[in-house]
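Subject: Interface between my chains keeps coming out wrong

I've been trying for a while to get a sensible model of this assembly. When I model each chain on its own everything looks fine, but I need the whole thing in one frame so I can look at the contacts. Pasting all components below, labels as-is. Any help appreciated, I'm running out of ideas.
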Amino acid sequence: MAISIFIVDDHYMVIEGIHSLFHHEKSVEWLGHATNAASCLAFLKQQLPDIILLDINLPDKSGIDLCKEIKTLYPTVCVIGLSTFNQQSFIEKMMANGASGYVLKNATQKELMDSFETVMKGRAYLSHEVAQMLRSHEATDDAPVLTRREKEVLELIAEGLTNNEMAEKLFVSASTIDTHRKNLLMKLNAKNTAELVKLAIVKKLISFS
Amino acid sequence: MAISIFIVDDHYMVIEGIHSLFHHEKSVEWLGHATNAASCLAFLKQQLPDIILLDINLPDKSGIDLCKEIKTLYPTVCVIGLSTFNQQSFIEKMMANGASGYVLKNATQKELMDSFETVMKGRAYLSHEVAQMLRSHEATDDAPVLTRREKEVLELIAEGLTNNEMAEKLFVSASTIDTHRKNLLMKLNAKNTAELVKLAIVKKLISFS
DNA sequence: CGCACCATCCCTTTTTTCCATGATTTTTCA
DNA sequence: TGAAAAATCATGGAAAAAAGGGATGGTGCG
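Reply #2:
Try treating it as a single job with all components included. I did that and got this:
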């Protein structure tokens, strides 16, 4: 019984690459591909693959969110995250949203095949490099939990607003902002504003683009 | 006469994808691939392709630097930048270092073929999306040129050091640091340190991991 | 109810940054 | 070699942030 796979990636070359890796492989059935979240969901209404290879970055939605949706709608399919980035936060979010595995795009045919077989047995698969990285980062990189207000203030700090400006904008007194600021420095263990902003970006507490 | 190509990319799937796009194409001769800068340079000592498809991100060296080296050693080969990122600074640096073109990894076979033909005629090729983006971002997103010292100070600021600490570390007076700092604020057009750090990261003037 | 947590507010002192202005030496490179 | 750019240093004042303290009301939860 062949394993049926479906791939979601906005990079034509990656789709083509995986296709060419498996098109001669009898044990793998290529159901097709999608280049965005919407057409992926449309496809799944018609047909369910055993495994979905899902890129982290899609044009219309993050792969992380899409993974969650897929697992809610179709709990039986296995999702394997696919990315060029060996980034802990991505991997964790992906796995937290129900993914069965995570492989990097520099994986070989053998690694991919391994991942298929492993997840079909109901176990999780992390590619070699990913697993290694997770071990090394284990104790360090944990993002603190911020309150709604703290996040707001953090974003405004990074925009370059002063306490007084933030106070006006958020309709509170400057002292309140000052307190939030102190708490942020404490929670992120930052020495000052500069380090605070850097850590906030590194830990993906604020988004920018 | 077939166009000979060589590809440098650390992602197995991308190599495989491009290979599969062209292996049946008589007008394109596939010379091989490398997954890092060192083995690329080693290959070029043996044989020169017409076109090198060069990824921006390599494990041992940035594709931008490698492009410069290649064009210095072998001015006749055409380099086409290859990336998932549609980022102005990358594109500009790549072209400034002698690249003949820049295509995204979601390019189709036709687009790639176009790019080959265009650069072989001695003209530059930018894939559709790239050209469109450059037009829209024209006046805005340009990273300023920083001096060696300014970059050093910028990194230390993001680490959370104060002027006095940086002065000690760099064996200069605090006033000197202050001047660099002012110049940084001016060059990046930042209101204060917080925005400075954010912009520095957004514009990829400092690296973190 | 008591407890933890959040959001709000206030005060003081010290440190650091921001701004303006000006100047000298060193390096770079056309 | 000569001009331009970079790096260096300084003074002084205004503004902002950091660090320390303490305080009040509200909400959710076992």
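Reply #3:
Confirming on my end. The interface with chain B takes residues 10-21, 35, 57, 84, 104-109, 157-162, 190-198, 201-202, 208-209 of chain A (CB under 8 Å).
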